[in-house]
Amino acid sequence: MPAKKNPSRARAATYRDAGVNLDAADELVERIGPIVRRTYGPRALPSHGAFAGLFRLDYDERLFARNYRDPVLVACADGVGSKLLIAIHSGRYTTIGVDLVAMNVNDLLCSGAEPLFFLDYVAVNTLEPDQVTQLVSGIAIGCEQAGCALLGGETAEMPDLYRKNHFDLAGFAVGVVERGRIMSAANVRKDDVLIGLPASGLHSNGYALARKLLIDEAGRDLHDEVRALEEPLVDALLRPTRIYVKPVFAALHAYRGRPMITGMAHITGGGLPGNVPRMLPDNCDAVIRRGSWPVPPIFGLLEHAGVAEDEMYRVFNMGLGFVLAVRPKSADAVVRRLQRAGEQACVIGRIRRGRGRLEIT
Hints:
It is built from eleven helices and 14 strands. The protein has helices at residues 22-37, 83-90, 94-109, 129-146, 207-217, 233-238, 245-254, 271-275, 297-304, 309-315, 331-340, and strands at 44-45, 54-55, 71-78, 114-124, 149-157, 167-178, 193-198, 225-226, 231-232, 261-266, 284-288, 320-326, 346-353, 358-360. It has a six-stranded mixed beta sheet. It has a four-stranded mixed beta sheet with strand order 3-6-4-5, covered by helices on one side. The longest helix has 18 residues, at 129-146. The N and C termini lie far apart (91 Å).
């Protein structure tokens, strides 16, 4: 008597049956290839289809000579947090790619490092080439703004780990700085001037609280026009993090002979109180004056929703995305240089003797 066939074995099992689409992955690779190559400069070596990206630290060509005497590599990793949920709910994915680059290269910049290359990791429930192409397009835009190469990345399809339509992003940046020009808290001194560079909005921090207050509790629709913002809520919440690399390097390179810029802080999670002290020596305090810079209206909307002022400063950047400490005699020149590079730089405070803390007056 012939054996009964097992219905579940009627056809051969495939990876797609488990939720992973290899054809979509191949399509994505072909789509993003030209986008990635758009970020390449002369130091990135073509390596399409290879297992790793290639990047030359120094040039051989005289035309591009920019070699390092005592190079130190600087690396960091970051994500964009629950801002992803706003992108998922709105179906808009490009700007969070810019955020991903910004969160990394702005951190590198605080060490005085020039960003060299960037890598991304995208983990999804189901691989949708259109969605991931938007993400990678945003990452490429961020890399172009930062002057670094999008050297490689990884896209993982994991339906058992992520909910339908959900995904996660991580980014990794590598930069280089001459050892003698590494930014150190020891460089900051009493009477140094603090210069602030404006944020475009929330950047990529505080979104758990912002979503709770503005969407979950207030019941606002993301696409509703908000009178206080003069734009739809989704536009304010998805405005990308500003990338400060090129204007700050314009100032750094203008004064190579003298250390005019002595410290830098990227204002991310923890706000001004959590990040400005990271550039201070133990014997100095930073004193910042309220009202010395413009504050985007999204912060007023959040404060009106019930957040105490101290908590606002502890959670959000409050309109400042980057802070520099500068020698007092050079402050005006540095502000002018930053303004010529497109920044609305302004003096926001000073360094005084203290214990490594921030005071907002």
